[in-house]
Amino acid sequence: MLAYKKLLIIGGLSALFANGSFAADTIDSAAVLAAHNKARAEVGAPNLTWSSTLQQKAEKWAAELKTNNNCVMKHSGPGENLYWASAKKTATSKDASGNWIWQDSVQDVKEADAVGSWVSEKQWYAYPANTCSAPQGKACGHYTQVVWKATTEVGCGKAVCADKTQVWVCNYSPAGNVVGQKPY
Fold first, then answer.
1. Angle at 183 between CA 181 and CA 184, to 5 degrees
2. At how many degrees (to 10) do helices 111-119 and 29-42 cross?
3. Measured between alpha carbons, how far is 3 from 93 in angstroms, rounded to an integer?
4. Which of 3, 2, 170, 9 is nearest to 87 (CA)?
5. What is the pLDDT of residues 20-67, one digit of tens each?
6. HSE value, Cβ hemisphere, 13 Å, CA-based, for 98
7. Are the C-beta atoms of 21 and 100 separated by less than 8 Å?
8. Which of 88, 133, 135, 144 is a good FRET partner for 1, with 20 to 30 A between their CA atoms?
């Protein structure tokens, strides 16, 4: 499912930037699991476990989005949440004409930030009717995938593009969001 966020998403390959190194290829699996399992506990869904197979799939897709799609989000298939973030723009000096000189850098997004963006969709999901009342451009499916009771595993990857935007990919097994079924 697509999730657009103008802040940042952690990307998937190591990069060295002028302001220092950024461990772009590292995702803290424990932090991802903690964020997912907190939301799942709130609705009585069992904890997820980390899958290195799903992680490899997510990393491969994040790298594909970086290489062939400039970090524009596109799903590879069902059972997948995506998160995107822009570069961090800062200006600390002006040119001779007095115009700010802008610099882009990779934002420091935490695992809980990406998962939290998906979980924030809970506000629009109505469990009794199994309906979503999200405003235009928003959704509930990222949230329902996070808490899908039958899902047992997750694995994630990320990529940082040349323009310092980021895309995160989390894959779930078994995939959730089955039409006509409630998530928990």
1. 115
2. 30
3. 34
4. 9
5. 333 455 899 999 999 999 999 999 999 999 999 999 999 999 999 999
6. 0
7. no
8. 88
